[in-house]
Structures
1.
Amino acid sequence: MKRWLSFAALVAAFALATKLGWWAVPVVAALWGFLRPAVDAPAATAALAAASAWALWLLGNWQADHDAMGLLTTRLGGVMSVPPALLILLTLLLGAVLAWSAAALAGAIAHSLAQRSGDTR
């Protein structure tokens, strides 16, 4: 239960951070990766949470204005020569990669610092 609550809080943090801009996703992920022990797989958790948060944002926007989102994905997909569904998947993948890379890097830094100080994180 504690893991689910932690995951839900991380999804909420990513959703709120995204309101500031895409660049806030790696910031939240780096904090997560730095504060979580490596055995908890913080990078994978961050990637899944960020993709979930972005999926919720997209779903919320889709429900708020289905026609506008459909038009946007169709036109942007046409410009990029990809189907609209692939465009949405690529969007979720971007959030996941941003979060994974920042959490993995911060986790590695935290682990290195802990080893140097003699702490066994």
Note: The chain has five helices and no strands.
2.
Amino acid sequence: MQWDQTAVFWTHSVTPIVVGTPIAVLAVGLLNKNEDGKKRGMYLASTMLISTVFSAGLKYSIQRKRPFIAYPDLDQVVAADTPSFPSGHTTKAFALATSLSLAYPKWYVIAPSFLWAAGVGYTRMHLGVHYPSDVLGGMILGSGTAFLSVKLNQWLNKRIEKDWFFDGKKSVDDAYQPNN
């Protein structure tokens, strides 16, 4: 029972973290008048939007029943009223972890981001609302949308012939130089 409460807390951390992180990065970029910080915040936000749209589209296209519906003996610890595949929580967590890792390629960003995302995936199964394949699908979809978002930003930069968007090429150290 104690682990159930921890799992519920962990799984409910997704929305505040995936909404708050892009806002915080963007706000710091705006406050510091740092163009690269603003681009990274917008990149994180666009990744979250893209991952949410793709996840919802797949959920309602596939219409997979939740494990607690297919197997009534399973305990459902948290509410879930949408179809099962892919795990939306896992998709968003891995989209954020991957996009943070691309925007800030340092071990102290990458390791905690992916540990948190993996924990989210595990809690979705532990709480009886997802199959392992739902979580795996969310991991792949979330990571894929982060890479798609970088490619989209690179294409937009090339198309408008100005670096208005995060291009995934600058290192984090370059973003905090005084001339940026």
Note: Residues 171-180 have pLDDT under 50 and may be disordered.
3.
Amino acid sequence: MLGDIEPDMREVIVEGRTDVALMQWFFSRAVPESDVQLFAVQDRVLIPDDTVKSRGQNTGARGLVITTATIVHENSPESDRIIFVADRDCYSIGLDSCPEIGNLLYTDYTSMESYYFSPKVLGKMLSVALRAPKEIVAEKLVSEITPVLIDLFLIRATLRSLPEPKKLAGKVIDRLKFSSDGHALDIVDALLRSCPGSSKEDLMAIFSALEVSPESDVRHYIRGHDISAVVIKYVASMHARLFREDRRHLSQPDAMSICLVTCLELVDLENFGLFRALKTYASRKPAPPE
């Protein structure tokens, strides 16, 4: 067994390769003496989609992580050499389950991207990556885009709740604009574009039934992949000059997402539950051989 050959080694399996890169950086700063190997689930696990579905999970990286963690736990319930990390996704509104398994950890909010949705991180991106003047402040950006991000999260949840689930139409975010009067996201239009031929009343009934707790952190109600796209739409609408010349590539969501990840600092992560648990896991001394 690999655990017998290298008892000090720890292994963490996560959803994506960007998650791997972020955690490698975190461990190198928070627990530099640890021996932790990190893998994206797609690079480490081969399980058929039928098996994922039979375990009550949706296909994709999240379902694969949870299914693998469950199978590993069933076969070695006492082993904690391998730890799995999955996004919470729509757990806050009951659309995704988060099974409590000893070898499975979850993000504190909907996804790994949620950790960079803060004025501090976005402020660093504005000032360093986009070289924005000091008059353009991250606090205003956050307050302006938060309602849009929550509405997009609930629109997606509505479409997913249909008897035949639908995905958000691409043109919804493509058409999104901001102005001094607010934003142009029309919830009804977004639902009907994504689900043509459906009843507006039926769709809005589902949408209206979804509840956002006013006492919860908004990051429980924001889809991670929407953050970069909506940040770009806000900057392009309100401060288009910031995407000129050598900053033009940051108007692409993937590039903006990578930029925001690199704006995180150790202090931004080490107090969150997930990263505290990972630090404890990496710091733990192996049990002595019997």
Note: The longest helix spans residues 138-160.
